[in-house]
Design brief:
single chain; Enolase-like, domain 1; flat
């Protein structure tokens, strides 16, 4: 299989049921696709023509914050693309609560997977959420499909 054959499927909007809605500080929302759903989607459209590899984690300090950084190499139909992922070592809310889901390595890995998928066009449409009207339509579409409208 060639990348040009699967590219239209990679760049298409994914089914609404794979999306999740995250609440943001300040009352906002953001629609995203969990990394496990991205890999399941690759299994659906090109099950034997993709592979993934990761670098060892690197821990950095920048402006008194500690980060974990991981590089993900996603290969689809023989074409490799590489992207970094990062996560703060600690995610503490304004109230002093730990907001992290998983350890820094897991969060950096998830970020790297999503970034590598975007290099193939997967989920890139989600960046249009910066347009509030577009985002509200997306949220309504996801909620309707999930029966939470």
């Amino acid at each position: 299989m060639k990348l040009t054959e699967v590219l239209p499927k990679l760049t298409a909007k994914l089914p609404p049921e794979v999306h999740r809605i995250r609440k943001l500080p300040g009352g906002g929302q953001w629609v995203f696709i969990p990394w496990r759903s991205l890999l399941a989607y690759l299994d659906q459209i090109c099950p034997e023509d993709w592979a993934i590899a990761f670098s060892d984690p690197i821990f950095l300090v920048h402006e008194d914050k500690r980060f974990c950084v991981i590089r993900c190499t996603l290969t689809i139909c023989g074409v490799p693309r590489q992207a970094p992922g990062s996560a703060e070592h600690e995610l503490i809310s304004r109230d002093g609560n730990d907001m992290a889901q998983g350890d820094p390595i897991e969060r950096a890995t998830a970020d790297a997977i999503r970034s590598a998928c975007e290099l193939f066009g997967i989920g890139v449409y989600l960046h249009q959420q910066r347009d509030r009207q577009w985002q509200q339509k997306l949220i309504a579409w996801v909620r309707q499909a999930q029966g939470t409208a």
